[in-house]
Amino acid sequence: MTHKKSYSELRAELLSRYPTGATRGGVGIDDIVQLRLQTPYETHLDVARAMATAMRRDMAEYDTDVGKFTQSLGCWSGFHAQQMIKAVKRLRGTTKGAYVYLSGWMVAGLRNRWGHLPDQSMHEKTSVVDLIEEIYVSLRQADEVALNDLFNELKAARAKGAPAKVVNEIIARIDGFESHVVPIIADIDAGFGNEHATYLLAKEMIKAGACCLQIENQVSDAKQCGHQDGKVTVPREDFIEKLRACRLAFEELGVNDGVIVARTDSLGASLTQKIPVSQRPGDMASSYTKWLKTEPVTGDNPLREGEMAIWQNGALVRPARMPNGLFSFREGSGRARVIEDCVASLRDGDADMIWIETDTPNVDEIASMVSDIRKEVPNAKLVYNNSPSFNWTLNLRKQVRAQWIADGKISEKDYPNDNALMSADFDASDLGREADVRLRRFQTDISARAGVFHNLITLPTFHLTAKSTDELSRGYFGDDKMLAYVATVQREEIRRGISAVRHQHEVGSDLGDTFKEMVSGERALKAGGAHNTMNQFAAE
């Protein structure tokens, strides 16, 4: 990214052009400085380039300190992303380490023209691009609104004749302003078609601002959510071609630091669509087909009309084939296939990170797989889905129970081993508290022990929106009426300092007033006068 010019540098440049402090048309140079600082990127492709570099820097820092892992929440609108990053900035004082995850599941379920759809790549692919663009529009507008507040503060200080120290302090805050624009990890599903279709969509996603693409090794036309049954994987050569397609898209558009996350669904996938052609023993194709479920072809078990066989380990064998033509893998082979997938994606596919879709949140299980992957690729890093598809409470309580029984701390009879363990009766129990301790440190543990650079939750805003709307609706349409809104929403916004409580300001009303002043001066018809009800709320 090019050098970000300071307020003073831009002002000096403009004074050299306009020594009077204004253009011939009467536009003040401070107004021009403000607009330039509010708009550091000409296009969203510039955003992709800058965020890719930022993400690479974060990855390098993680390599030296595993405590510096990054996080994101899946967002299905620009407003969700904006409010998430504002919350992070309020909490930490910085946006560093916070990303946005763009979930294909939520695009399918919530952001397409065809209604609520399952995560099967049935939605129009342009809706993914549209959401990336919308998220960056919202994040950039958050910058514009915040910088406008700072410039209004600067104008007010100068108008009051404030001391130079006060003016310079405000200018320092303008120069030190940290953007709400952060990296997006964008889900391209299985590529929405062949490798050329993947390349074309990848380019559009990158031009919309995506610095990181996440792609999975399922068949495009049979794609399933990673937490559903019926997943069908593709041979590794096919997947590597799609990884290359993504890399070519980054390179063509000059996003040299573009990041690719290769996801494997092999742990839960028991099917493949085709048998790759092996050219020599031990090649990538044979390492894929060796896991097929087969039975020997013998005199007592000959080939029948329409069947097929392959030569494997010196014998002719018949692959197990489903009525739909799909081939089955051997039971229990998922873990080994995951390890081989990840090594091939990193070593042969030029992927930067891997994503292992698991069926339970178990640090030991994931760390064990990563340990085997790192025997081949020592610096392997992961993106991990802290999925809402897991019953986190039940899983962690069962893990604690099993460990305590093995350690002799409790007996089998002390706690149930089924869904009864979910009961609120156990929330304050020793086991319930220990499970919550492990939940609190889960991401720290998995990042330290299993090479997880990025922890995300795919669908949190889907569930949060459902829960919050239900909570408000139950009270508002029930007995509490207005108290439900005030107590559960507005009062909490005010007390937490959530800027959205001033909703007119949040969507740029003051920003509009500033622009009117820039071009109209005293003639400007402004919305933020004495009768604006937003004045009832204190500024953030």
Which helices and strands occur, and which strands form pairs?
Layout: H1 7-17, H2 29-38, H3 44-64, E1 70-74, H4 78-92, E2 98-102, H5 104-110, H6 126-159, H7 164-175, E3 184-187, H8 195-207, E4 212-216, E5 232-233, H9 236-252, E6 259-264, E7 271-272, H10 284-289, E8 294-296, E9 310-312, E10 315-319, E11 327-328, H11 334-347, E12 353-356, H12 363-373, E13 382-385, H13 392-406, H14 430-450, E14 452-457, H15 460-476, H16 482-496, H17 503-506, H18 509-520
Parallel strand pairs: 1-2, 1-14, 2-3, 3-4, 4-6, 5-7, 6-12, 13-14
Antiparallel strand pairs: 7-11, 8-10, 9-10
Q: Could you please describe the fold and organization of this structure?
A:
There is one protein chain. The chain has 540 residues and is of the alpha/beta class. The chain has 3 domains: 1-38, no CATH class; 46-272 and 329-459, Alpha-Beta Barrel (TIM Barrel); 478-523, no CATH class. 47% of the residues lie in helices and 10% in strands. It contains 18 helices and 14 strands. The protein has helices at residues 7-17, 29-38, 44-64, 78-92, 104-110, 126-159, 164-175, 195-207, 236-252, 284-289, 334-347, 363-373, 392-406, 430-450, 460-476, 482-496, 503-506, 509-520; strands at residues 70-74, 98-102, 184-187, 212-216, 232-233, 259-264, 271-272, 294-296, 310-312, 315-319, 327-328, 353-356, 382-385, 452-457. The strands form 3 sheets. An 8-stranded parallel sheet has the order 12-6-4-3-2-1-14-13. A 3-stranded mixed sheet has the order 5-7-11, with no helix packed on it. Strand 3, helix 8 (195-207) and strand 4 form a beta-alpha-beta unit. Helix 1 (7-17) crosses helix 2, helix 12 (363-373) packs parallel to helix 14 and helix 13 crosses helix 14. The longest helix is centred in the N-terminal third of the chain and has 34 residues, at 126-159. The radius of gyration is 28 Å and the shape is globular. The two termini are 31 Å apart. The model has no long low-confidence stretch (mean pLDDT 91).
